[in-house]
Design a protein that fits this description.
single chain, mainly alpha, disordered N terminus
Length: about 200
């Protein structure tokens, strides 16, 4: 039993050990990579069928499933690498501080909220990618040094820089990036960051 636990903890290479330090974030990144490869092999059909959220003609269980799985799909390598770079940088720190379960909850809530709002308000737009999750993590990270009764300057600056840019782009620029997903993800991350830190302080 002890030997099996060591294998799960990490892979030892010489004097060093590769540790599985953030299971939720690492699994998310690996699954997203697998989805991207399958998308290329299927010429995008698998992504469009299961890993992209859009307004289908009928509201089915598959539609609900896509509310959660769309964050695993990406349109290409640039899209994937851009999101994973932030995810792998910020995710492990958040997972270590709050725990794997809470980070997974943030991911799922962000995925559901962004897909549901997009489904209801923008039926002509399909969304995929982990950008909303990344923005949630960016806002959560800004609450790292939160103290009750205070608003961290880092949170204010992050909100102005990241969410302000998305609002500006959404109003004045036209591109294929869902600014709404970024904004909603940031809001979800900010709420979770605040609530989780309030709870930690009260304990």
């Amino acid at each position: 039993m002890a030997d099996n636990k060591k294998k799960l903890d990490g892979l030892k290479i010489g004097r060093f050990k590769l540790s599985f330090n953030a299971p939720v974030v690492l699994c998310f990144a690996l699954i997203s990579l697998g989805v991207l490869l399958l998308s290329y092999i299927s010429f995008g059909k698998i992504r469009d069928w299961l890993f992209m959220s859009y307004h289908a003609s009928k509201f089915t269980l598959l539609t609900i499933l896509r509310f959660f799985t769309h964050v695993l799909g990406h349109v290409g390598w640039d899209h994937f690498i851009g999101n994973m770079a932030y995810l792998l940088l910020l995710g492990p720190m958040l997972e270590e501080k709050y725990g794997s379960g809470k980070v997974l909850a943030v991911m799922m809530v962000t995925a559901f909220v962004t897909a549901l709002i997009n489904y209801l308000l923008f039926p002509q737009i399909a969304i995929c990618g982990a950008s909303g999750v990344v923005f949630a993590m960016i806002l959560m990270t800004s609450f790292t040094s939160f103290k009750e009764g205070e608003i961290p300057i880092t949170f204010v600056l992050v909100a102005i820089i990241y969410l302000g840019k998305e609002i500006f782009d959404g109003i004045f620029m036209q591109d294929d990036i869902s600014n709404l997903s970024h904004i909603l993800g940031g809001i979800v991350g900010g709420i979770f960051g605040y609530l989780l830190n309030i709870k930690r302080k009260s304990n």
